[in-house]
Write a structure and sequence with these properties.
A hairpin with a 2-residue loop joins strand 10 and strand 11. The protein has one domain: Alpha-Beta Complex (Cathepsin B, Chain A). By secondary structure, it is of the alpha+beta class. It contains 17 helices and 14 strands. Helix 6 crosses helix 8 and helix 10 runs antiparallel to helix 11. Strands 1, 4, 5, 6, 7, 8, 9, 10, 11, 12, 13 and 14 form a twelve-stranded mixed β-sheet that branches. The protein has a two-stranded antiparallel ribbon with strand order 2-3. It comes from Levilactobacillus brevis.
């Protein structure tokens, strides 16, 4: 039976507060400064000094500006680090706008296929409602960028630079989502009217042509062939003519993307460790690389990242960046804000509880470029962000090991660093399919 709050209860709460000598002091501080500033423990800053025993030199940070392309920036950053070392191009960037164009275009097609697959369900069904809430967005995951690169390649930023709409994506996203929802009404009606496969295919083809036009007008049309002209760090001039986006990737990055796999730490009861998982309706390229996660313990999770850093290669990772982090100073540390002491309330939840109860999920992707090992154990990590140089230490953040334990959910590592049994599992096990709204399907 529901119970209302009584006057006696309120009076008791008021009396308890009145008897607390510190209550008014705390009230004045919080009402004037806010919760975070009052709860901040600046002793954390000394512990989070940006000095690391393993520290990769990865040059200037990039800036995703007012867009949600962190996953794309982080992935392309790991590739440009490799390219910059090989060809002496310290401040070089790959075109985030090029991969952004094709991701948007492929997401439209992916959405249409999911609309058709669920057309027999009412609009009130959870899956249809999930699709219509956000038909497409800027976010993504590592495997989704691999699917784009495998199909379309990549290009230097100089070949397809940023536009107003790639750097400030709100207008483009709202326009595309309006268009996709409208298209969904047409496709669902065609299915309801028992239209032929050819009629549905013709309707979808017209929709995709319109989508391409919108993207070309807002992001510019992608190049199919180009010359790569540059001066290296030694001031030597180079020009490489007649490249395609795929030949550029093969020649200047040269990775086998199948070697790089997604490792997650999701300590929830429905995801036993040392098994693989995928997420229904998560992806972008129909027929392309699927999202596949290998779930491991936090100890294995960190050791894999450390091994890759020790080998001189940066690590893409996904986390819940807004939790217990100070953006301007670039500090992510569970000791930075002490809300428990401020309010005399126990806010603690386990990592599993935060995932199960909607308190946390992956919201942002960045790059690990260093770690501080003391007696062989990590104490803090160096993080390359994509928010420009005005935050953190010229754009680099410091993350405590405790923060990683609590809020990091995904790393991407070369499978050569996996133990033999986990490598076999990752390569051969058919992944368990998770619901579309599972937190491991969150887009960074």
């Amino acid at each position: 039976m529901s119970k209302e709050i009584t006057a006696d209860q309120t009076a008791r709460y008021q009396q308890a507060l009145a008897s607390d000598a510190s209550a008014k002091v705390i009230e004045r501080a919080v009402t004037h400064q806010g919760i975070l500033a009052t709860a901040a423990d600046y002793a954390s800053e000394a512990d989070m000094s940006p000095v690391f025993s393993i520290d990769l030199d990865t040059g200037k940070v990039a800036n995703q500006k007012q867009s949600g392309r962190c996953w794309m920036f982080a992935a392309l950053n790991t590739m440009r680090h490799h390219l910059a070392d090989l060809f002496k191009l310290s401040d070089f960037e790959l075109s985030q706008n090029y991969t952004y164009f094709w991701d948007k275009f492929e997401k439209a097609n992916y959405f249409y296929e999911n609309v058709l697959a669920t057309a027999d369900q009412p609009t009130s069904s959870r899956k249809v409602a999930f699709l219509m809430t956000t038909p497409q967005q800027d976010g993504g995951q590592w495997d989704m960028l691999c699917a784009i690169i495998e199909k379309y390649g990549i290009v230097p930023k100089s070949v397809m630079p940023e536009t107003y709409n790639s750097s400030k994506s709100n207008e483009l996203n709202s326009t595309l989502n309006l268009k996709l929802r409208k298209d969904a009404t047409i496709l669902r009606q065609l299915v309801a009217d028992k239209a032929s496969d050819d009629e549905i295919a013709a309707a979808k083809d017209k929709m995709l042509q319109e989508d391409y036009r919108i993207l070309a007008f807002t992001l510019g049309e992608p190049v199919s062939e180009f010359d790569f002209e540059y001066r290296d760090d030694d001031k030597n001039y180079h020009i490489d003519k007649g490249l395609t986006p795929k030949t550029f990737f093969d020649k200047y990055v040269g990775w086998d993307l199948n070697d790089y796999v997604s490792i997650i730490n999701a300590p929830t009861a429905d995801k036993p460790y040392n098994h693989t998982y995928t997420v229904e309706m998560l992806g972008n390229v129909v027929g392309g690389r699927a999202v596949k996660h290998l779930n491991v313990s936090i100890e294995d999770f960190k050791q894999l990242a450390i091994k890759q850093l020790q080998a001189g290669q940066s690590v893409w990772f996904g986390c819940d960046v807004g939790q217990e982090s100070e953006r301007q100073k670039g500090i992510m540390d569970t000791k930075y804000y002490d809300k428990d002491a401020l309010f005399n309330v126990d806010f603690s939840m386990t990592k599993a509880e935060k995932l199960d109860y909607g308190e946390s999920l992956m919201t942002h992707a960045m790059v690990l470029t260093g770690v501080d090992l003391v007696d062989g154990q990590p104490t803090k990590w160096k993080v390359e962000n994509s928010w420009g140089e005005k935050v953190g230490t010229k754009g680099y953040f410091v993350m405590s090991d405790a923060w990683l334990d609590k809020y990091c959910y995904q790393v991407v590592v070369n499978k050569q660093f996996l133990p033999a049994d986990l490598k076999t599992t990752q390569e051969t096990e058919e992944p368990t399919v998770l619901a579309p709204w599972d937190p491991m399907g969150a887009l960074a």
